[in-house]
Hints:
Layout: H1 3-10, H2 14-22, E1 29-30, E2 36-37, H3 40-54, H4 59-70, H5 76-109, H6 120-126
Antiparallel strand pairs: 1-2
Helix pairs in contact: 3-4
Amino acid sequence: MNIGKASQLTGLNSKTIRYYEDIELIRPDRRDNGYRDYSDRHIEILNFLKVARSLSFSIENCRALLGMYRDENRASKDVKQLVAQQISELDEIIANSLKMKATLQHLSNNCHGDNRPQCAILDAFSAGIVNKSDQMVK
């Protein structure tokens, strides 16, 4: 099947599929005319990559997961270790996001939000305040 059909079946755009080919995550066959030819196995791999990327795995970790997927002698502990690492990275992202949310909430709570030109949010930004433990400009 052509790249358009592969895109339709996977929900990935053609540019992403070509990128995965460029970085050698997938190697479609080529027809006599040079066009890419995707098999059901290629679609399976593209769906695999779509799920892994949707869970924020890096390209290199996708490459590692794909290698494990293809290796019938893999140890599930290796897969689990990579997933545990991803969970740890997501925990860090969540913690940082919660800190940012708390900072924004604090700034919002200190802004009058009326027609006055004075704005505690802009004052904090211009003062370089990045978290709520920094001294708030009033």
